[in-house]
Amino acid sequence: MKRVIATVLAVAAVVSGCSSDPEEKPASPAEAGKLRVLAGSELADLKPVLDKAAQVTGVRVEFTFSGTIEGSETIASGKADGRYDAVWFSANRYPQAIPDAARRLGAQAKIMTSPVVLGLAKSKATELGWVDKPVSWSDIAKAAAEKRFSYGMTDPSASNSGFSALVGVASALAGTGSAISAAEVGAVKPQLKGFFAAQAMSAGSSGWLSEAYQRRATGEDPGAKIDGLINYESVLLSLNAGGKLPEPLALIYPSDGVVTADYPLTALKDAPEHARADHKKLTEYLRTPDVQRDIMSRTHRRPAVPGVELGKDFTAQTLVELPFPATEQAFDALLMAYFDEIRRPARTVYVLDVSGSMEGERIEKLRGALVGLTGANNDLVGRYRRFHGREEVTFIPFSGEPQQPVTFTLPETNQQAELDRIKQTAEGLETEGGTAIYSSLERAYQHLGAQPDDGRFTSIVLMTDGENNSGLDHAGFQRAQQQRSGRLKGVPVFPVLFGEGNKGEMEDVAKRTGGKVFDARDTDLQKVFREIRGYQ
């Protein structure tokens, strides 16, 4: 199979009959009246609609959630065969660009749509003169390069909204009127660098990004406030409708075009005949005018059926659809340029538990997860989830006390020597002694405090398999966090639950720092470490 864009984004949600991990969960038996669907996690908000659909049509949806790109890999590899009856992502552009995936796709029906646009706090949009006036991607890129506003965006290798934004701005800046090609990426790099200089927050999912923006806007999170988001129109309208923002977002629809998600519910060609019939029955119901209006009201996504009138919250502006790259080569060129050359580089400190309880299989899993981030496994996911050019990575192993930090700085090009050094260091991790979680976390903050304030995306990954039993305690960490400088207080910590790690304490650490807890107790540690990359 050819190289494809892939990511690790398996998100549990609150939909009846849903699960995650599209390749490892036991296959649910096929049966009439049940549609086994590999889907994007944002579709969890359709639960009330699908519950009603089950009552009316007799077709119950069983979701397994996955990232769009990871799902494309699952389809292309054949691992969806016999396990799923249909797929439902924000768009089919990814699998359709991969021959081995495209040939497995059957009948599809677009259920709803949502363009990816810029949302800015109303006062900032007014200050920029962008309210009720045509604004192009070039205008936005120029203001971003001048640092006249800041924004958050999802990682384009982890989320369709981020990749759609990257494609949209690159295509518009190229100005060719056609989908950007691999050869054209180089010409727009300078403008793209300016555009992404204003990006102040990254995330692995659109939902977490919007929640983080709201927490920062209200002061709940310690991170610096940002002016807006690039996200689905539906997410931005939902934020406004929630009534929790200090001021509403003004939605900016670039006059030269947007990339729109159209959410096609797509049957797989090898699905049983009864599943294909259920797919037809369900999609016909979901596309009825009354259901389309219900979806629009509940989710702020636009109807996919012509003739259904838009609600009052939607713009009357005619939206131009930008062409989307159709080749793997264009995807690859754009993403690799983004990570290695265009976006602001990252500075990450990995605080790594090597206490005695990590002996055996656990330390082997930790070594393997870190080695995987060097791209050593040479698999599809690893190409985009590895450490990238210009990135600064620090390891602080700890047991009864923290060890000395070991820092690696990757050059923009010819990175293999430094990646090999990271790999060698990871493979050399040895276990012994107790567990000084909070003293080691403090050591990470001390290290970051000694670094220049040079605009990098800065974060800490804290991985531990047990309870703190040495050095500073949890209460001591809480006191220290209150006393930090603004710059350090806003550094998010991403704790990884492993083994017997204290869930309550790790959740508190994440909340106090604006981070997020990742659970590796029942999931492969390498997958979790790769998922965290979307937030760095």
Structure, explained:
The protein has 536 residues and is of the alpha/beta class. The protein has three domains: 19-111 and 263-303, D-Maltodextrin-Binding Protein, domain 2; 114-252, Periplasmic binding protein-like II (D-Maltodextrin-Binding Protein, domain 2, 3-Layer(aba) Sandwich), CATH 3.40.190; 345-535, 3-Layer(aba) Sandwich (Rossmann fold). Helix content is 38%, strand content 18%. It is built from 21 helices and 19 strands. Strands 6, 7, 8, 9, 10, 11 and 13 form a seven-stranded mixed beta sheet that branches. The two termini are 29 Å apart.
CATH class category of the largest domain: Alpha Beta
SS field, number of helical segments: 21
Task: Report the sheet-strand fraction.
Answer: 15-25%
CATH homologous superfamily placement of the largest domain: von Willebrand factor, type A domain
Q: What's the overall average pLDDT, rounded?
A: 92
CATH architecture of the largest domain: 3-Layer(aba) Sandwich
